[in-house]
Amino acid sequence: MFIKRIFKKETEMRKLFLIISLTSLSVNACQLSENEKASNDVGVRVEQQVSKDDKEIKAPDFILTSTDGKQIKLSDYKGKIVILDFWATWCGPCRKGIPDLIEIQKEYKDNVVIIGISLDQGNTISNVIPFMKEFGINYPVVYGNGKVVEDYGYIQSIPTSFIVDVNGNIVDGFVGLVPKNVYVTKIQSLIETNYN
User: What CATH number should be reported for the domain whose range is 11-195?
Assistant: First the structure.
C-alpha cells in the first residue's frame, strides 16, 4: 500500500508516520471508512526514531474551529503538555477512552490540555455537541479537516493520539485505545522534566 507523507524533508517524521500507518490496522482502533470496529484495551505505541539523531519532531501547528465557534491554534498552548486525540462519535474505542481523558484533564489541568480533534463528517458531525454534553467533555473539541489529517501522517484509524511537550515537540503517539496509566506515566515524566 502506498502511503503519502507530508514530511518529505524530515526522515524521522516519515518513519514515525509510516509506523503509525502500518500499525493502523490494530484491533483496538476504528478505520475511518467504517462505522464500528475494535475491542482490545491497549493502544499501539508509535515507535519514535528521533532519539537516534537527537532531532526534535515539531508538532504541526493548526488552526481549527472548536464546537463553540472559537479558533483553536495548537501553538497557543506552548508551555503546556498537550494530548491531541483524533476521534469520532461513532468509534467504539474512542467512546471508551473519553472518560479517561476527562479525568486526566481534571487531574492535570494546570499543566496539561487535551484537544479532541473530531473527524466526524456528513451525517455524524451533528452528533458531536450532544455527545460532548452526554459525556461531560471538559476540554476543547475542534472539527478536524483534511489538512490536519494529512499533517499528522494521514490518520488511518482512530483513536490516534499524540503527546506534545511544552516546547511543541511530539514525544509520543498511539494508534488505538490507550490506558489512562500510559498517559499519566508520560505526563508525570514530562512534568518532572519541565516544571521542576
Answer: 3.40.30.10
C-alpha cell at 35: 462505522
The angle that helices 92-107 and 180-195 make with each other, rounded to 10 degrees, is 30
Q: Tell me which of 44, 74, 94, 113 is the catalytic residue.
A: 94
CA 21 to chain centre: 14
| Amino acid of residue 153 | G
Give the active site residue among 74, 91, 104, 166: 91
Annotate 160-190 with three-state secondary structure: EEEEECCCCEEEEEEECCCCHHHHHHHHHHH
Residue type, 49: Q
Averaged pLDDT for residues 133-162: 96
pLDDT band at 141, cuts 50/70/90? very high
Sequence spans of domains, the chain: 11-195
pLDDT (0 to 100) of residue 6: 33
Active site residue 30: no
- The answer for 153, left when phi > 0, alpha when psi is -120 to 50, beta otherwise, is left
